[in-house]
Amino acid sequence: EFMQASWDVEEVQAEGIQYLASFVEDKTAFPYLLTCTEVITLAMKVHTDSLDLQVEGCTLLLEILSQALKQGVMMALDESVASCLLHTVRKHSENEEFLSMLCTLLMMVSASEVAAENLRKVGIIPDLLSILRRFLHNDTICFSCCAVLWSLAVSEDDTDQAVLASAVPVTSAVLQEHLQNGVIAESACSALWALALQGCLADSDFEPTAALLLDALRMNSERARLVQNGCLALASLVRLSETAALAILLDSKGSGTELIKVEYHLHSHEPGVAEAVCLLMNEMVQYDEVMLNMRSQKMEKLLCEIKLQFPFS
After folding, report:
1. What is the DSSP letter of 299?
2. Is 229 in contact with 190 (CB distance < 8 Å)?
3. What reaction is this protein's catalytic activity (predicted)?
4. Of 73, 96, 123, 132, which is the most buried if we count CB atoms within 10 A?
5. Could you read off the pLDDT of 29-50 as tens digits, one per residue?
């Protein structure tokens, strides 16, 4: 009430946020802090010129969201909160340090399907892409933004098809830039998978994207989740085009089918990896020429292994 009575007074908002922050460690206060997110974001929107207030507000929201996630509470922030966060993003689009924090906040917010939908409604995707282009070197920004893109693209609503399509080259650039960073590569693979599921790739994207995903698998073969999401992304590409399937077979750095065998054997105890590999092979055998090649590579043997390993799945 103290903050709401004086929106225009920056000192009041700053003191209010600082006072709320003093309750972060008090577990009994947590349910009440959950109700304060709209007040905090509105204070940030009204006083976007004050970087100190933005940082303190963002830090407090991160603390509240972190606690919520630990306790299994999903915070479905409404459209007005999403709009306030977008306003803050646009006002401080050049401040790399603050954006790193803000993009982490957006990633945590977008874990909620409702919040992700609200971020889409207010039109945050072009801003995320702009940030990625500008700060392609920044690990935190790339990881967070790709995670947000995954959350926004994985929805079945296709109203943003053209906007999502513009995310393909940027996400590919992130993966190319951070191929050796498993955490970021995993996030970028997930985003590409979601974009492929939505049919956002053009004909000219299939071959280079397939090659890039194979590179990600080669360079991060120890990461089961990346292997799983990489195979799912490849399966989505192959479903859309035989070009992608042929690109896997004829990759300049070695047979993609041999790579799939290696990856499966590295993670043969992981049901998610096995399922993704089966899904990819199932998509590939839809094309006669590809199926003949897979037979010559003795892929039936791998399928039999998987069937023995997971007889009840």
Report:
1. H
2. yes
3. L-seryl-[protein] + ATP = O-phospho-L-seryl-[protein] + ADP + H(+); L-threonyl-[protein] + ATP = O-phospho-L-threonyl-[protein] + ADP + H(+)
4. 132
5. 888 888 888 899 889 888 988 9
Query: Which pLDDT score is estimated for 178?
Result: 97
Q: Which residue is listed with tokens 């003949």? A: 292
Q: For 104-113, what is each residue's pLDDT tens digit?
A: 999 988 888 8
Q: Which amino acid is at 97?
A: E
Alpha carbon distance 109, 40 (integer Å): 14
How many CB atoms are closer than 10 A to CB 42? 20
- C-alpha angle with apex 85: 95 to 174, nearest 5 degrees? 55
What residue type is assigned to position 103 of the chain?
C
Q: What are phi and psi of 219, to 5 degrees?
A: -85, -10
Instruction: Say how far apart CA 54 and CA 41 lie, in whole Å.
Output: 9
CB neighbour class for 12 (10 Å; exposed up to 12, middle 13-18, buried from 19): middle
Give the tokens for residue 138: 């920044």
Q: What single string gives the DSSP state of each residue in 234-297?
A: HHHHHHH-HHHHHHHHT-TTS-HHHHHHHHHHHTTT-HHHHHHHHHHHHHHTTSHHHHHHHHHT
Per-residue CA distances from 102 to 77, 143, 153, 261 (Å): 15, 12, 20, 40
- How far apart are the C-alpha atoms of 233 and 15, rounded to whole Å? 47
Structure-block tokens of residue 113: 């399907």
- Amino acid identity at 199: G
- DSSP secondary structure letter of residue 6: G
pLDDT of residue 252: 80
Place of tokens 């972060």: 24
Q: Which pair of tokens denotes residue 291?
A: 């199926």
Neighbours of 298 (CB within 10 A): 11
